[in-house]
Design goal:
mainly alpha; two-stranded antiparallel sheet; 5 helices; 2 strands; globular
Length: about 120
């Protein structure tokens, strides 16, 4: 028996998947609005493509995190979570060095270390 497997993901899809793995929103929009240096995001197309491939699922509306934290600061937490297949793919991306940590995840980690 012969079998083959190919999973094609674009750069925006990889970035979205990695941000979801870190528990934050994809932050490409932040750079486009502030600096105009990055290509605009299409989180709708990227998220639905990942969902169609079975890598992420959207959280129900009542489980989605608040936009503001307890101190009134904006927080960029993800409205999606990884599926088991998505988690396995993220592990593979980390092993191969392709995982892209989102800036929001770096900020989240540094704020957690400061407390």
């Amino acid at each position: 028996m012969r079998s083959s497997f190919c999973l094609a993901l674009t750069q925006p899809m990889l970035e979205f998947l990695c941000a979801t793995a870190d528990g934050v929103k994809w932050d490409r929009t932040l750079y486009y609005k502030q600096y105009g240096a990055a290509k605009p995001d299409s989180f709708i197309a990227s998220s639905h493509a990942l969902e169609k491939r079975g890598l992420i699922v959207w959280l129900p509306r009542e489980q989605r995190p608040s936009v503001l934290d307890g101190e009134g600061n904006l927080q960029y937490l993800s409205n999606c979570r990884l599926t088991p297949a998505g988690a396995a793919l993220v592990d593979l991306l980390k092993v191969t060095g392709i995982f892209v940590e989102a800036d929001a995840a770096i900020g989240k980690r540094s704020r957690g270390a400061a407390k």
